[in-house]
Structure formats: structure tokens, C-alpha cells
């Protein structure tokens, strides 16, 4: 396993845990929960920010491969955290240079840096923003560029804390699809922290549901879907599914839908379900 948490507890303004999880290289994990559930603080711990950047006491174990993510050291560059409001370096004047800022500080060749910039501009649909000043970007544009900056560092573990919250649903879905392809090609492990069910749930391998800092559930997306429907924001159609499975004790979680198309098919196969 690549990412392992054993009896992880974080103690501060909000207490989190204990958390146990095992995530293999290339897998995707959803940290699901409402506002104040603790998913952002847990994301920061997974990024190696505790206690250096996020002052909290920690107990238990948290490892990324052989690296102790709770050790008092500089967060590892191979782990990148992207938050809802990206922070810029303040040292450059164009989006292209912002994306190249991190790689350039790794003493890479000019050719390598330029190649990373171009690749990530294309991957995130940001090529048209290359000459813009980062401070002039809209919320959605900034989130695209924030992702590009993180990916330009070629991380092994990418943590996205509501990193696409300002994009349209279609743009969010398209970006996740692009990222999934990149993840499969480069064995990139991804953690998504979200307050909404869609569109993230269809792309994940595991879900960890948080409620007030406590782990309410952990397992496959299908097994955790009933709980996620209670905890996360979702459309009326998904709320209708939640109401139906809540009253059907014989419902098998393995057959539950994870996409809008599958949801429509589920209702067709269950004509007696209420909508």
C-alpha cells in the first residue's frame, strides 16, 4: 500500500479520528463530508502539513510509502495539495511562469520546465490563459491553473480539497476525466475532499465519510453511497434514491448507481420506486 493511516488522530481546534485507511498506488480516495467535518484538516495532514504548516497534535501513524507524513520536516514535494483558492508565488507576471515556478526551483533544464508548462496548460484547458497575470484570473480559471501548478511538480500523491468548486459541473466533470487519464498513465494517487456527491463519486476507488471529525464510514463507493447521500449535497434525483434505499432494507449496495446515467437506469429497473 502507498498511503497508510493507522489509528491516526489529530487534536486541535477540531479533533479528527481515529482514521484507518489503506490506499494503493494509482487509486482514488474521496474524503466525503459536510462543512466542518474535518476533511480539510485531514487533507492537510495527508499532505504532510502537520505540524509545520497546520499546528495540531497528532497520534498514530501516517505514511506515504516509506515517508512519515507526521514527522516535523518540510512537506514532501512529491505530495501536492491544491485548495479551493490557490495561492500564487507573487514572483512572476504570467500564468505560464507561475506554472513553471516550482519546476524551475528544482534546477531542471529550461527545456524540461517549458515542456512541463505546455503539458499542464493543455491538460487543464488553460492554454488560452498562459499570458495572463495570475491575479486577473476568475475563480474557475484560478482553479485550473492551481491544478496545473501542482501537476507540473510531477507528484506521486495529489490531494484536491474542493479544488474544482468554482468550475461549472460540465467543466468539473471534464477536468476529472482528464485527470483520471493522466493518473492511469503516471500511477498518480489522488485524494478528493468534497461536500458534493457528483461528479467525483464515479471516479473513486474508495470513500471515507467524515462527520464532525469522526469516521462515519469507509469502503467502496457503492458500500458508502447510502451514507454519502445523507452527508453530501446532491440533486433531487439522488435524494430520491436516498429516500428509496432508506426504506428498502433488502437493497444491495453493490447494485447502486454512481453516475447520472446509472441512476436513470436504476429507476427504470425499479418502477415502484418513488421519485
From TrEMBL:
GO terms for molecular function: ATP binding; ATP hydrolysis activity; ATPase-coupled transmembrane transporter activity. Coiled coil: none annotated. Keywords: ATP-binding, Nucleotide-binding, Transport. Signal peptide: none annotated. InterPro entries: AAA+_ATPase, ABC_transporter-like_ATP-bd, ABC_transporter-like_CS, ECF_ABC_transporter_ATP-bd, P-loop_NTPase. GO terms for cellular component: ATP-binding cassette (ABC) transporter complex. Residues 1-237 form the ABC transporter domain. SUPFAM superfamilies: P-loop containing nucleoside triphosphate hydrolases. Belongs to the ABC transporter superfamily. This is Energy-coupling factor ABC transporter ATP-binding protein. It comes from Ferrimonas lipolytica.
Amino acid at each position: 500500500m502507498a498511503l497508510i493511516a493507522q489509528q491516526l488522530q489529530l487534536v486541535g481546534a477540531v479533533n479528527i479520528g481515529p482514521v484507518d485507511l489503506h490506499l494503493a498506488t494509482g487509486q482514488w480516495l474521496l474524503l466525503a463530508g459536510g462543512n466542518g467535518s474535518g476533511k480539510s484538516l485531514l487533507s492537510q495532514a495527508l499532505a504532510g502539513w502537520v505540524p509545520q504548516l497546520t499546528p495540531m497534535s497528532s497520534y498514530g501513524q501516517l505514511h506515504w510509502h516509506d515517508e512519515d507524513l507526521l514527522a516535523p520536516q518540510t512537506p514532501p514535494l512529491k505530495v501536492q495539495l491544491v485548495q479551493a483558492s490557490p495561492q500564487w508565488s507573487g514572483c512572476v507576471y504570467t500564468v505560464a511562469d507561475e506554472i513553471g515556478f516550482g519546476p524551475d526551483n528544482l534546477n531542471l533544464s529550461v527545456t524540461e520546465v517549458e515542456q512541463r508548462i505546455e503539458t499542464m496548460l493543455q491538460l487543464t484547458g488553460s492554454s488560452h490563459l498562459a499570458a495572463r497575470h495570475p491575479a486577473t484570473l476568475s475563480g474557475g480559471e484560478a482553479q485550473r491553473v492551481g491544478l496545473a501548478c501542482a501537476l507540473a511538480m510531477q507528484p506521486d500523491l495529489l490531494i484536491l480539497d474542493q479544488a474544482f468548486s468554482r468550475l461549472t459541473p460540465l467543466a468539473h466533470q471534464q477536468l476529472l476525466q482528464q485527470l483520471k487519464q493522466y493518473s492511469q498513465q503516471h500511477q498518480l494517487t489522488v485524494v478528493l475532499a468534497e461536500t458534493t456527491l457528483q461528479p467525483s463519486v464515479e471516479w473513486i476507488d474508495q470513500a471515507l465519510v467524515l462527520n464532525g471529525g469522526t469516521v462515519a464510514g469507509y469502503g467502496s463507493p457503492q458500500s458508502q453511497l447510502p451514507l454519502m447521500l445523507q452527508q453530501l449535497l446532491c440533486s433531487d434525483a439522488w435524494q430520491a434514491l436516498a429516500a428509496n434505499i432508506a426504506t428498502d432494507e433488502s437493497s444491495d449496495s453493490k447494485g447502486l448507481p454512481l453516475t447520472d446515467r446509472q441512476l436513470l437506469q436504476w429507476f427504470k429497473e425499479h418502477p415502484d420506486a418513488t421519485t
